[in-house]
């Protein structure tokens, strides 16, 4: 039999990766398991705000936009973004 490669997708809603500890409850808690996991296993940092998840530039991300983008496997333009673009283009009715 061949080797099986397993993949695990873990979504930690509201969780962010930052080197700053001020106001960062996760970093201040120093979670041993997550620290070890991040050091020993592959990790991808995803952009979770603005155009990366179908929102306007500068807009903070949210669970709906993030989960929809991950589930679709592509950026799905959010309603507010479409409406704002239509207004900017004077293309609304």
UniProtKB/TrEMBL annotation:
A Pfam family annotated for this UniProt entry: Metalloenzyme
Superkingdom assignment: Bacteria
GO molecular function: manganese ion binding; phosphoglycerate mutase activity
The Metalloenzyme domain, residue ranges: 6-74
A GO BP annotation: glucose catabolic process
InterPro entries found in the cross-reference section: Alkaline_phosphatase_core_sf, Metalloenzyme, Pgm_bpd_ind
SUPFAM superfamilies (alphabetical): Alkaline phosphatase-like (SSF53649)
Protein name in the entry: 2,3-bisphosphoglycerate-independent phosphoglycerate mutase
Classification lineage: Bacteria, Candidatus Ozemobacteria, Candidatus Ozemobacterales, Candidatus Ozemobacteraceae, Candidatus Ozemobacter
